[in-house]
């Protein structure tokens, strides 16, 4: 893998950066009616999506450790993996979107896209390459049939 930074740490770094941007650039703040409720809904939904990915991996008795994709024992294509190859990351990003809504700052919200791009380049693509090496054409077929994000 290109970088060995756990995705949860990446998420936390982006959340801190978003907070800093919101404080440093208050002119980019906008009024979001019901922002607390929307933020909580996004966070809870994101948590549920991530958890459903973990549960699917556990049911198939394969690793949930994103730092060791070579330890995977099977391709999971059921549950949320029918709709996205990365439900855990989708859930993380939804939580970050909730944080952006709570902060109500355009600059902070743009960092969510930065997080998606970072995770795609430095976490997901290397994971996919490791899984292609390990599982070959069955994983390639899965990649063709299910989107990376949504």
Q: Mind describing the biggest β-sheet? A: none
Helix content: 55-70%
CATH structural architecture: Up-down Bundle
Strand-and-helix sequence, N→C?
HHHHH
Structural category is mainly alpha
> Outline, from the CA principal axes?
elongated
Termini, distance in Å? Answer: 23 Å
The count of β-strands is 0
CATH topology: Four Helix Bundle (Hemerythrin (Met), subunit A)
- Gyration radius from CA atoms, angstroms: 16 Å
Mind explaining what this structure looks like?
This protein has 150 residues and is mostly helical. The chain has one domain: Four Helix Bundle (Hemerythrin (Met), subunit A), CATH 1.20.120. Helix content is 66%, strand content 0%. It has helices at 7-24, 35-59, 87-103, 106-135, 137-145. Helix 1 packs antiparallel against helix 4 (106-135) and helix 2 (35-59) runs antiparallel to helix 3. It is elongated and about 50 Å long. The chain starts with 6 loop residues before the first helix and ends in a 5-residue tail after the last helix.
Keywords:
150 residues, mainly alpha, Four Helix Bundle (Hemerythrin (Met), subunit A), 5 helices
In short:
With about 150 residues, the protein is mainly α.
List the helices and strands and how they pair.
Layout: H1 7-24, H2 35-59, H3 87-103, H4 106-135, H5 137-145
